[in-house]
Specification:
putative membrane protein from Corynebacterium diphtheriae fold, about 35% helix, globular, membrane, DUF3239_dom_sf
């Protein structure tokens, strides 16, 4: 196997996305959309204040622990959007706001497992707008031919640079949009959140 030179630390380095995200994270944009980042930062700041204002002895260990937790969180986000699988999403509902994303859960060595994931959406896109998303995949066993689920996140949650957002959209082929629109026809309306398996002639479901 060829050595992996991506410097991946928090993700599975044995897998490679068909369309890697290559999106840089803007910390303040991420913090505005992902409250967990703020909740993790608060105890780190409090522990640092304790170190400098009260006691280095009693504050050092908590500071180190919270620093490591924050580092791992931000490192995973950075790797998610740099190396995760980028797929186009379409806003399919405005009340509630929902986005649909198509993917193939196949691990690449057997079968075809088409799905559509519909997720809640907090971005600026309106009905039928196209957006970029980057997903990580989840599976229970390395022996199974497909992943059990995938988790797309809108790119605009971590980056608000229009040029970079447009570059992500340009990475999707027109065929990929047609595939998503075709799969949506198999899903009952009104749309609801969830993972939907798609039956086609080539499907292995």
């Amino acid at each position: 196997m060829k050595d992996d030179d991506r410097g991946i630390f928090t993700l599975d380095s044995d897998t490679v996305a068909s369309n890697p995200g290559r999106v840089r994270i803007m910390p303040f944009v991420l913090m505005r959309h992902m409250r967990k980042s703020v909740l993790l930062l608060i105890p780190l700041l409090v522990s640092l204040v304790f170190v400098f204002q009260v006691s280095l002895l009693w504050g050092a260990l908590p500071s180190i622990i919270f620093f490591v937790i924050n580092y791992l969180y931000w490192r995973r986000k950075q790797e998610h959007f740099a190396f995760g699988d980028s797929n186009g999403g379409i806003v399919v509902s405005e009340n509630p706001k929902l986005v649909a994303v198509a993917a193939n859960l196949s691990k690449g060595f057997a079968g075809n497992y088409p799905v559509v994931k519909i997720i809640p959406y907090k971005g600026k896109g309106r009905l039928n707008d196209r957006i970029g998303t980057i997903a990580l995949y989840e599976g229970t066993s390395s022996c199974t031919p497909h992943w059990s689920d995938f988790f797309p996140v809108p790119v605009e949650y971590v980056n608000n640079n229009k040029a970079e957002l447009n570059a992500v959209l340009r990475s999707y082929s027109e065929e990929s949009w047609e595939v998503l629109e075709s799969r949506l026809k198999q899903i009952a309306q009104p749309y609801k959140e969830g993972l939907f398996k798609i039956s086609t002639e080539n499907s292995s479901w």
